[in-house]
Amino acid sequence: MQESGAKKRILMVEDTASVAALYKSYLNPLDVDVEIASTGQQAIEHFAAGHQFALILLDLRLPDISGFEVLAEIRKHQPDIPVVIMTAHGSIDAAVEALRYGASDFLIKPCEADLLRVTVNKALKPKSIVDGNKPEGAYYGFIGRSVPMQAVYRVIDSAAPSKATVFITGESGTGKEVCAEAIHAASTRAKHPFVAINCAAIPKDLIESELFGHVKGAFTGAAAEREGAAEMADGGTLFLDEICEMDLDLQSKLLRFIQTGTFQKVGSSKVKQVDVRFICATNRDPWKEVVAGNFREDLYYRLHVIPLSLPPLRERGADVVEIAQSLLVMFAMEEGKDFREFNDEVTQRLLTYDWPGNVRQLQNVIRNTVVLHNAREVTEEMLPPPLSNVSGVKIASPFVRSNATSTIAPAHDDNVAFNSTLPKQGSVTKADIEPLWLTEKRAIQIAIDACDGNIPQAAGLLEVSPSTIYRKLQSWQESQEKRN
């Protein structure tokens, strides 16, 4: 064991002697003792001999064996020792994979002295100090502690101090903007602006103005000079969401802006310079977009410096329940409801559902449940479709059906049997006719009352989708608010 007052010993496993010497010099101000192993076998021999280290800096590309093999051996001898992977740009995916197998962090080579020292300092601190200010399972705007998300957190921690561009990919709803904000918040630019621009939501003719700004009279409707996102983000971070949707003509201007840090407002000849860190995101495969001719190859290589892939919710295991619980309490407080937990059936449904819309869909499901119901515990019947996929026949119990049929006449597929209380043919006048929406509204309200407010049950009786009832109720409420 190391004595508390002694220098902390670090083992650097690096086969290039000049690089090892350079990085060792970077660490001199930290007052640590750095030993160098030039092969994987030398590193393993240190541990076999019982040598104790506070930290391992491990290159994945070694001349004799793989860094993964070294990592596995280290974990056998000292399972709790922090291991920081050192890798080149082209091996980032391998570094992320190493995080899944027990590495603590990773560095991208070549790395600057400050970044190396910050990473080593953080790795040498006790875990309780590093994570002491964060709620368990929380990381900036993220919730969850699954292995895939731990890998994401490590990439963010490593990439945040750098100015290198991060390219985030992931399915729609996985939290790409949350990820970009986390990178900004963890960086030295956190006190400066974070500006997001959605390249898919802005019309093609206006996106250049949104990005770079315009001067008065630059185009029809430009009544005053306007500051663009690039200028607003000066000193901070510019997040370009759905970057693959950007028009090819503007991509060439963006490339020049990234390369030089300079731009011109629309309609101006004056060149402005800003200091901006770029983060971009897409829900597509960016290389496929390059091959298809929708995305410039030179821009791809300029932006695709640190790729970061967000896992879909279905691959995050128990994270879905943790996220749902947090959303449930938050929405319940907002809506003044009593919800605090899920029953076992709902928990199982959350875990087994595929979540094609990811976290965004989960938010909608929890919000829907909280708004339309009230109890302390969420039950399966409260869930909206498609999670509540029980048939209408099963939902409507015999007891409910017997009470409801006294109010609502049963409908038949071929010959509809009209309620005897309706006016007979020939006695109906124009004054007796009411708008169809009003008849529909009355039938829906009767069904909801018969089911004690349970909309999925009412939908089963009416033989329509619950989402149809939710949509109509919302429409009628909005119409009422307009009239008031």
UniProtKB/TrEMBL annotation:
Residue ranges of domain Sigma-54 factor interaction in the record: 142-371
Entry-linked InterPro entries: AAA+_ATPase, AAA_lid_NorR, CheY-like_superfamily, Homeodomain-like_sf, HTH_Fis, P-loop_NTPase, QS_regulatory_LuxO, Sig_transdc_resp-reg_receiver
One GO MF term: ATP binding
Domain Response regulatory: start-end pairs: 9-124
Keywords, sorted A to Z: ATP-binding, DNA-binding, Nucleotide-binding, Phosphoprotein, Repressor, Transcription, Transcription regulation, Two-component regulatory system
Name of this chain's protein: Quorum-sensing sigma-54 dependent transcriptional regulator LuxO
4-aspartylphosphate: modified positions: D59
Species the sequence originates in: Enterovibrio norvegicus
BP GO terms, sorted: phosphorelay signal transduction system; regulation of DNA-templated transcription
